[in-house]
Specification:
Layout lengths: L18 H16 L11 H6 L34 H14 L4 H28 L14 H12 L5 H5 L4 H19 L12 H17 L5 H14 L4 H9 L15 H23 L19 H20 L24 H20 L3 H15 L25 H18 L3 H25 L3 H9 L6 H13 L3 H14 L4 H13 L3 H14 L4 H13 L3 H14 L4 H13 L3 H14 L4 H13 L3 H14 L4 H13 L6 H9 L1
Length: about 675
C-alpha cells in the first residue's frame, strides 16, 4: 500500500526509540514544558469565556450552547463575534460542574493533558507524513521514519508558541480542535488498510474522518481545514500524483489524463465525499450562525479597515511574515498584538517590506522545489509540509473574511505541524551533507532544550495576570491594551496611583480608547478629581455613544457636582443602551433619594433587585429609606424578603434589627437577627 521512495531516516542523525518509548518520551517532555501552569489563575480572556459565561452554569439549558457563541452571547446578536465552538464550551461546563465552581486548577490540568495527548498522536502523524503510509501483512501500520517522526514530535511538543493554547484556558478551543483534527487525519489513513475482501479503501473510515472533521470545527473554526488536507494527502501519498505533470496535462488537454492518477484508486469518489461533507458542515453552521458578519473594530485589526487595497495587502503579508517569524524564533511572545502593537505599513519605503520579501522568497523557493523537483520523495515532503503550514492558517489570513486580531499565537498551533515537517526535512538534508553529524545533532538538542526552558518561563508568566501583562510591556510597548491591562490589574489591587500612570499612557497611545478613559475617569472620581473625570467620561460617550458604563459613571460624577438633571439624563441614557443594568438603577435611586423623590428612589432600587436579586446595597437602601420615612411595617417586609435571598448579609441584618427595635419587637425576630450578627 502506497510504497514510499527513499527513507528519510537514512539521512537523519538522531536517536532511535521503539514506538512505545518514543511516545512516552514525547508525553513526558511535553508535560514538563507546561506543568508549572497547572495552578495558574484565570487570566485575560478566561474571565469573559469562563467566569462571566452563563453557558457554564447548570441553570442554563444545554440546548442554549448550540445557539450561543464562544463567549455566551446569542449568535443573532449584533455584538456577537460569531465564534461558534459549542463543544469547547461544553467541556468548560463539565469542568465547572465537577469542580463545583470556578476553580482554575481543573481547567489547567485538562489543557495540559490535551497537549500531551496531541503531542503523542503527533508521533503517528509525523511517521505517516515523513515516512509514508504502509501496512504489514497482518494489517498493522508500519513506522518507516521512527527517528524523523520522534524529532518532529519533540519539536511540536516543546514549541514555545503553544504556551498560549496550553497555559491559557481559553486555548482549549485550539487544543480540542487539534485533537479531532489529528484523529480525522488518522481515521482517513485507516481507510486505506486493505480488508479481507480486497477492497483498497473503506468508505466507512472516510465518513468517520468527515465526522471527526465536523467535531473539530465545533471546537474551533480551523478544524474544517482537515478535509482539504486529507484530500491533499490522498492525492500525493496514496495516488502519488505529480502536481506539475497534472497541471501540464490539464493545460494541454492530454488524453492520458486518467493515467495521472485522478481516476485511480477511487480518488475522485473520496474527494467528492470530502467536498460534500465539508459543504454540508458549512451549510449547517451557516444556518445556525446566520449571515451577519462578526462585529470587530478598527483597533482589533487596523489593516482590514484601511481604504487602500495596497495597504491592506501589504500589511496582511507583513502579518504572515510575523507569524512565520514566531515559528522560527518564538522569543518575543505577547498575549495581545492589537492596538498599535504593529503600526501599519503605508508606503514601500518602510524597511519592514524586507520581511515580506524574505517570506515570499522562501515560500516561492519551497513551492518551486515542491512542484519541480525530480525527486518524488522531496516533492511529497515539501508539499505536505507547505500544506500543513498554510491550509490550517487560511481561516486566520483575512483572505475570506475579517478576523478580530492582528497576530494571534494560538492560531499557529496547527500550522506549526507544517513547520516541524519542514524543519525535520531541512535537518535531514544538513545531516546528509555534514561531516560531523554529532555536532549537528547536539545543536538540535540545544534548540529543544532552549525551547523547553522558554516554555517553562512563558507558562509561568501565564500563571497570573500581573506577570502576563507586564511581560508584554517589553514586547509591545506601543500596544495601548497592554498598558490598559497593567493599569486595570494595579487598580484591582488598590494601587490607584500606579494605575493612573498606565491608563494615561493607554489613552495617549490610543486617543479613542474609551475603556481606558472610563476606568481612568472612575479612579479620578474616587479621588474627587471630578472635573477631569467628567471630561474623560464625556469624551468616551462622545466617541462611543452606546457605551452604557461610561454614561452611568458620567451620571455619578454629575451627581457629585450637584448637576442633578444632567445626571438623571445620563443614567437613563445608560439604561437605554443596556436594558438590564442593575447598578445603574441603584445609582439612579440614590439620585432620587438625594432629591427627596422617595417613590422614584424605591422604584429604581426595586428594579435593581429584580434584575439582580443579590444586590445587597439596593435592598439595604430600600430598608433604610422606608425606616427613615416611618414606613416600619413595609421596611420590615422588605428586610425579611432581602434576607431570604441573601441570608448571611450582615448589613441587611443590622438594618432590619433597627427596624424591629423601633417597632418594639425585642423578642423573637430581633433576637434571631442579633444572634446572627454576633
Amino acid at each position: 500500500m502506497a510504497q514510499m521512495e527513499p527513507n528519510l531516516d537514512h539521512d537523519v542523525s538522531w536517536f532511535f526509540l521503539p514506538s512505545y518509548w518514543a511516545k512516552m518520551v514525547v508525553a513526558l517532555i511535553s508535560f514538563l514544558c507546561f506543568a508549572n501552569s497547572y495552578d495558574g489563575d484565570f487570566v485575560f480572556d478566561d474571565s469573559e469565556a469562563i467566569i462571566n459565561n452563563k453557558d457554564l452554569r447548570a441553570e442554563t439549558p444545554l440546548g442554549d450552547l448550540w445557539y450561543h457563541d464562544f463567549w455566551g452571547s446569542k449568535l443573532s446578536s449584533n455584538t456577537s463575534h460569531k465564534s461558534y465552538r459549542p463543544l469547547t464550551v461544553l467541556t468548560f461546563r463539565i469542568n465547572y460542574l465537577f469542580a463545583g465552581g470556578f476553580y482554575p486548577v481543573g481547567f489547567h490540568v485538562i489543557n495540559i493533558i490535551l497537549h500531551c495527548t496531541i503531542s503523542v498522536l503527533m508521533v503517528d502523524v509525523f511517521s505517516i507524513l515523513l515516512g509514508g503510509l504502509q501496512f504489514s501483512n497482518k494489517g498493522r501500520r508500519l513506522n518507516l521514519a521512527p527517528k524523523s517522526s520522534l524529532l518532529a514530535a519533540l519539536l511540536f511538543a516543546v514549541h514555545p508558541v503553544h504556551t498560549e493554547c496550553v497555559a491559557g484556558i481559553v486555548g482549549r478551543a485550539d487544543l480540542l480542535c487539534a485533537l479531532f483534527f489529528l484523529l480525522s487525519f488518522l481515521g482517513y489513513c485507516k481507510a486505506f488498510k486493505e480488508n479481507k475482501e480486497g477492497h483498497t479503501f473503506s468508505v466507512f473510515w472516510v465518513l468517520v474522518s468527515v465526522v471527526l472533521g465536523a467535531i473539530a470545527m465545533l471546537c474551533k473554526e480551523q478544524g474544517i481545514t482537515i478535509l482539504g488536507l486529507n484530500a491533499v494527502f490522498d492525492a500525493l501519498v496514496i495516488n502519488k500524483i505529480n502536481l506539475l505533470e497534472l497541471i501540464r496535462k490539464l493545460l494541454y488537454k492530454d488524453k492520458s489524463l486518467e493515467n495521472a492518477g485522478l481516476l485511480r484508486k477511487g480518488l475522485l469518489f473520496r474527494i467528492t465525499l470530502l467536498m460534500c461533507g465539508g459543504a454540508g458542515i458549512l451549510y449547517i453552521r451557516w444556518r445556525i450562525m446566520g449571515t451577519g458578519p462578526p462585529a470587530f473594530t478598527e483597533v482589533d485589526n487596523p489593516a482590514s479597515f484601511a481604504d487602500s487595497l495596497f495597504v491592506r495587502a501589504i500589511n496582511y503579508n507583513y502579518y504572515y511574515s510575523l507569524n512565520a517569524w514566531l515559528l522560527l524564533c518564538p522569543w518575543w511572545l505577547c498575549f495581545d498584538w492589537s492596538m498599535g502593537c504593529i503600526p501599519l505599513i503605508k508606503s514601500v519605503s518602510d524597511w519592514r517590506i524586507i520581511a515580506l520579501a524574505a517570506l515570499w522568497f522562501c515560500l516561492i523557493g519551497l513551492i518551486c522545489q515542491a512542484l519541480c523537483s525530480e525527486d518524488s520523495h522531496k516533492r511529497r515532503i515539501l508539499t505536505l509540509g507547505l500544506g500543513f503550514l498554510i491550509i490550517p492558517f487560511l481561516p486566520a489570513s483575512n483572505l475570506f473574511f475579517r478576523v478580530g486580531f492582528v497576530v494571534a499565537e494560538r492560531v499557529i498551533y496547527l500550522p506549526s505541524i507544517g513547520y516541524c515537517i519542514l524543519f525535520t526535512y531541512g535537518f535531514s538534508l544538513l545531516s546528509k551533507q555534514a561531516k560531523k553529524k554529532k555536532i549537528l545533532a547536539v545543536a538540535v538538542l540545544g534548540i529543544l532544550l532552549i525551547n523547553v526552558m522558554r516554555c517553562a518561563l512563558r507558562s509561568s508568566q501565564w500563571r497570573s495576570e500581573e506577570q502576563l501583562f507586564r511581560s508584554a510591556l517589553s514586547v509591545c510597548p506601543l500596544n495601548a491594551k497592554v498598558h490598559y491591562n497593567v493599569g486595570k490589574n494595579l487598580a484591582d489591587k488598590g494601587n490607584q496611583s500606579a494605575a493612573i500612570k498606565y491608563y494615561r499612557e493607554a489613552v495617549r497611545l490610543n486617543p479613542k480608547y474609551v475603556h481606558a478613559m472610563n476606568n481612568l475617569g472612575n479612579i479620578l472620581k474616587e479621588r474627587n478629581e471630578l472635573q477631569e473625570a467628567e471630561e474623560l467620561l464625556s469624551l468616551a460617550v462622545q466617541i462611543q455613544p452606546d457605551f452604557a458604563a461610561a454614561w452611568m459613571n458620567l451620571g455619578i460624577v454629575q451627581n457629585s457636582l450637584r448637576r442633578f438633571e444632567e445626571a438623571e439624563q445620563s443614567y437613563w441614557t445608560a439604561i437605554k443602551h443596556r436594558k438590564k443594568y442593575p447598578d445603574c438603577y441603584y445609582n439612579l435611586g440614590r439620585l432620587y433619594a438625594d432629591l427627596n423623590r422617595h417613590i422614584d428612589a424605591l422604584n429604581a432600587w426595586r428594579n435593581a433587585t429584580v434584575l439582580k436579586p443579590e444586590h445587597s446595597l439596593a435592598w439595604n437602601n430600600m430598608i433604610i429609606l422606608l425606616d427613615n420615612t416611618g414606613n416600619l411595617a413595609q421596611a420590615e417586609a422588605v428586610g425579611r424578603e432581602a434576607l431570604e435571598l441573601i441570608p448571611n448579609d450582615h448589613s441587611l441584618m443590622f438594618s432590619l434589627a433597627n427596624v424591629l427595635g423601633k417597632s418594639q419587637k425585642y423578642k423573637g425576630p430581633l433576637q434571631r437577627v442579633i444572634s446572627c450578627l454576633t
